[in-house]
TrEMBL record:
Protein name: NXPE family member 1-like isoform X2
Keywords linked to the UniProt accession: Membrane, Transmembrane, Transmembrane helix
InterPro entries the record matches: Ig-like_fold (IPR013783), Ig_E-set (IPR014756), NXPE4_C (IPR057106), NXPH/NXPE (IPR026845)
Family in the record: Belongs to the NXPE family.
NXPE C-terminal domain segment(s): 311-490
Amino acid sequence: MQFSVTANRQRAFLAAVLVGLAMLSYFLHRTEIKVTFFGSHSESCIKQLAQTEEAFCHSFTGDRIGQRDQSALCTVWAQQRRKKQEMEDILTKLDQQMPSITFRDVKTTTSAKNSKATLLSHKDSYCVGDHLIVRLDLYDHLGKRKRYGGDFLRARVYSPGLKAGASGQVEDYKNGTYLVNFTLFWEGDVRVSILLIHPSEGVSAMWAARKKGYEKIAFTGKFLNGTSEVFTECGFNITTKEELCEYLDERDQEAFYCVKPKHVPCDAFIHLKSNNRPMSYLTPLEKSLFNRSNIGVEIPQTFGNIRVLSCNTLKFIDCHRAGLFKTHLVMDPERNTFVQWKKHGHPFVTKEFYSIKDDHYVPRAIDRVAGGESTAVVLTLGQHFRPFPMNIFVRRLLNVREAIQRLHLRSPGTRVIVKAENIREIYIDPERLGDVHGYPQNLVTRNIFRGLNIGFIDAWDMTTAYATNDVHPHNHVVWSQIVMLLTYIC
Ligand SMILES: *[C@@H]1O[C@H](CO)[C@@H](O)[C@H](O)[C@H]1NC(C)=O
Ligand SMILES: *[C@@H]1O[C@H](CO)[C@@H](O)[C@H](O)[C@H]1NC(C)=O
Ligand SMILES: *[C@@H]1O[C@H](CO)[C@@H](O)[C@H](O)[C@H]1NC(C)=O
Ligand SMILES: *[C@@H]1O[C@H](CO)[C@@H](O)[C@H](O)[C@H]1NC(C)=O
Ligand SMILES: *[C@@H]1O[C@H](CO)[C@@H](O)[C@H](O)[C@H]1NC(C)=O
């Protein structure tokens, strides 16, 4: 028996395998092969079937001398079968997801104008990060409630002034009710838009029509016949009695066809173009659903603009100390969050009096941190050291490094982040405060902290890039630094 497999001869091959199987089943230990062959067609069974067939095909051809090619074909054949099966599974699943509805009267299809959008749990204002839930109740043109889903909806929130927008997640309860879940990502006045792109009846009609054929597009192929050009019809599926040129990708099972021009070889096919054929697979009734006036109609709503606030839940706590440079504290008791800012110990250069009792050298402050997975220590040293000899700065950094090492010994989970100093005003008193002193400090900071398990925010680099030239950089630059900090912490 000879096994020659080509894509076109799969059926013959299958028959041959079946015959072979019947003959050889006597020799096979795994008698269930026979069961799976003729048994049920459940998904797992079919997968097993393809694998078993492949194994069988191999075992059979393997017995034969000089049949290595056949063995490779076995594998190709099994791969193609599996791909075909996966394709069918995907299409079957899509079929289940798309609506399947018949209707006789356009008046019984979904009407955007008659439908209602209601804001659930309405509030005067919302916080950034809140979810806005809108319930849709759909009605037909007669004012009767829809009892099934499948409508094609498009939902978004937007703020034209900010050029901001976000889509909403639509949940279809399959009974004429939908829930749209928006996330409020930004602060300001936000509008809601919910469009009925097509009623479910239109979606259903379109899905069915799409399966009906290949006729919507007319391909015209150009062949070269010597020095003249010949034009013929091409496409995926041509119904004709004339001879066809088949352009087949055997491996991937892709095929395209052209009517073969008389006395011109198929290889002389050089160019292709297409035109839309004035035809439709929809009935006139179905087509009327796709009138322009019926597409993308806004579902009316009464709730207008939504106010979204940033809602700092973090609260400031006044520590009742003198001056600007006191300890600053913010707290969020709901999320158990506590943020504290402290100045570092000597030198702190300012014309204002400040308490010398609250704050300590940074290494001492680190030594007081119990630490843990939910603790982060962020430190920056630099600007206030610029007027003094470098030995002060270097000694402090070495002490800080030892304190970090001690902290990690008792609490390896504590995050430590070092922020470099930033550049500042170019014309500031250079001998006292200039970046010319900041630069070697920046070098030394990188050197001393190298190799420690810490995060590093390169503020020197960032402010150089932004050219901020300000000892207190602008908010958007600080924001970039905070974003980097949060990526180390979260
Ligand atoms: C559809 O189902 C949802 C969820 O069960 C329910 O809240 C809603 O009221 C139902 N709508 C109709 C029209 O029965
Ligand atoms: C809205 O979506 C968010 C996640 O994106 C989810 O946590 C929340 O439960 C949803 N709300 C409703 C009412 O479905
Ligand atoms: C071409 O289309 C006809 C009718 O739509 C169909 O019966 C036939 O199986 C199709 N052939 C191919 C190769 O898809
Ligand atoms: C191609 O050219 C040959 C020779 O010039 C001619 O006989 C034939 O009819 C042409 N074929 C077509 C389809 O024009
Ligand atoms: C739009 O649809 C209606 C039926 O709903 C139909 O009577 C009318 O002719 C259509 N208009 C166009 C421009 O197709």
